[in-house]
Design a protein that fits this description.
81 residues; mainly alpha; 2 domains; elongated
């Protein structure tokens, strides 16, 4: 899967600039993205602000850590049996 050129926080910041009144054409030139990328980002992240995005990323990190810990415990128990 292709990785995005822009991070989620960068997309949210671009959307905030668009809400502030900067035209999409000017943002496109400044940041180097096309119309479709702008509207896809807007559809995906328009309801998020920076703090909500950071909370989601932190929760995702915590869940990944829990999964890794449980996997290690499972392997250790499997070796014992």
């Amino acid at each position: 899967m292709k990785q995005s050129k822009f991070s989620k926080t960068h997309v949210v910041n671009i959307l905030k600039e668009a809400e502030a009144g900067i035209s999409m054409a000017e943002l496109s030139r400044k940041c180097g993205f096309g119309k479709s990328a702008f509207y896809k980002g807007k559809a995906k992240y328009s309801d998020m602000d920076g703090s909500a995005l950071k909370q989601l990323e932190e929760e995702n990190r915590r869940l990944k850590q829990m999964h890794a810990d449980l996997s290690l415990e499972h392997l250790a128990l499997k070796d014992i049996v």
